[in-house]
Amino acid sequence: MATIHDVAKAAGVSPATVSRVFNGGNVTAARVRSVQQAAAALGFAPNRVARSLRKQQSSVIGLIIPDIENPFFTSLARGVEDAAQRTSLSVVLCNSDEDTGKERRYLEIALGEQMAGVIVAAASRDSTDLQPLIARGVPVVAVDRRPHDADVDAVMVDNQHGGEVATRHLLGAGYHRIACITGPEGASTSEERLAGFRSAMSSEARSAGERFDPAILQAYVRHADFRVGGGRLAMRDLLAMSEPPDAVFVANNLMTVGVLEALREAGKEPPGVGVLSFGGVPWASLARPALTTVELPSYDLGRTAAELLLQRMSGSTATLQTVVLRTKLEARASTAGPVEA
Q1: Are 264 and 197 in contact (CB under 8 A)?
Q2: Quick count: other Cβ atoms within 10 Å of Cβ 186?
Q3: 21-39: b or e for each residue (b if 16 or more CB lie within 10 Å)?
Q4: Domains 56-157+299-325 and 159-296+328-335 belong to one CATH topology
Q5: Taking residues 307-324, what's their average pLDDT?
Q6: Vertex 57: Cα angle to 1 and 312 (nearest 5)
Q7: Which end of the chain has the least Cβ crowding within 10 Å, N or C?
Q8: What's the CA gap between 57 and 40, in Å, rounded?
Q9: How far apart are CA 338 and CA 223, in angstroms?
């Protein structure tokens, strides 16, 4: 039996366009003809499918996240699912791989399949486009990352405050040449954590009566891809500097793994080179030395996002909300202070 996706492929349009054709949406006459011809050729039964989609609308929500391999997003997804299951909703999990093109296709599928709502951790602050969903009245909640100019409810972490607390911890432990390995440019979490780092470093310079030189600070900043390999490459690059850092603030947990690998390759290890991870890992307290982390409320992020979505799905017209959750610094031996030569 032909599906909405078969018709979309045959007509050369998106599943969302097929849905609009058979549900009275705004579609050009040429596309209507193309979709109708494809449907006739495939024996597509629009009325039956429309009834099926309406049924789905009451029972399925979409969750689009950048990286299911990251324990942070795994925990977040569990929070979403637990909250959804309490109201008999099912969750369709979509992994965008930080790819805006892949993310866009998932958003089109969510619209075409008339999902009841969508929770999305945006792949890009500037390129993720939620307007097609918003325009069709589909409830949307942004979680962890908010796209620019998206009028939706949001659940965020106070990334800048967490980055500032982390950097101040390294400064307080006696480190001076502190580097920051953050995520891709354009990701809100990358920029916010980097902003916290810069704020703490510039404040430290001013309090010491030193002239703050942004160029020197920027020399110790690296953008990577939020993956293990990106952290490894960034740390290798930092270690090749004429004055390599004596500590590094790493803006996510997977990159921290790569950083530790690069240090081991170079015959260095914490706390001689301090390592602080923004985002916990299950083995943080078991590592030798134990890893200092900024713990994130990942499960609560997912649960809260699902609860906000459920409110919108039930017809709430309350003012849009942005819920901000705080982080918690767990100081361990990896930032005990530089080792005297």
Answers
A1: no
A2: 17
A3: bbeeeebeeebbebbbebb
A4: yes
A5: 92
A6: 165
A7: C
A8: 25
A9: 24
Q: What's the Cα-to-Cα distance from 296 to each of 18, 65, 94, 328, rounded to whole Å?
A: 41, 16, 22, 7
Could you tell me the CATH superfamily of domain 56-157+299-325?
A: Response regulator (3.40.50.2300)
Among 119-123, 166-170, 204-208, 313-317, which stretch is predicted with the lowest mean pLDDT? 204-208
State pLDDT tens for residues 11-44.
998 877 877 777 656 778 788 888 888 888 887 7
What's 159-296+328-335's CATH class?
alpha beta
Based on DSSP, count helices (H) and strands (E) in the chain, helices before strands: 13, 12
Question: And the tokens for 289?
Answer: 């030395």
Q: What is the CATH number of domain 1-55?
A: 1.10.260.40
**Range with lowest mean pLDDT among 18-32, 217-231, 239-253:** 18-32
Q: How far apart are CA 260 and CA 258, in angstroms?
A: 5
- pLDDT value for 50: 46
**CA-based nearest residue to 297, from 325, 337, 335, 263:** 325
Amino acid at 202: S
d(CA 122, CA 98) in angstroms, rounded, equals 8
Q: Hey, how many other C-beta atoms are within 10 angstroms of the C-beta on 203?
A: 15
The distance of Cα 258 from the centroid of its chain, to the nearest Å, equals 19
Lowest mean pLDDT across 76-85, 144-153, 250-259? 144-153
pLDDT at 24: 59
Give the residue extent of every domain in the chain.
Answer: 1-55, 56-157+299-325, 159-296+328-335
Q: Do 174 and 336 meet the contact criterion of CB atoms below 8 Å apart?
A: no
Query: Between β-strands 247-250 and 328-330, what pairing exists: parallel, antiparallel or unpaired?
Result: unpaired
Q: How far apart (Å, rounded) are the C-alpha atoms in residues 174 and 247?
A: 10
Q: Which amino acid is at 216?
A: I
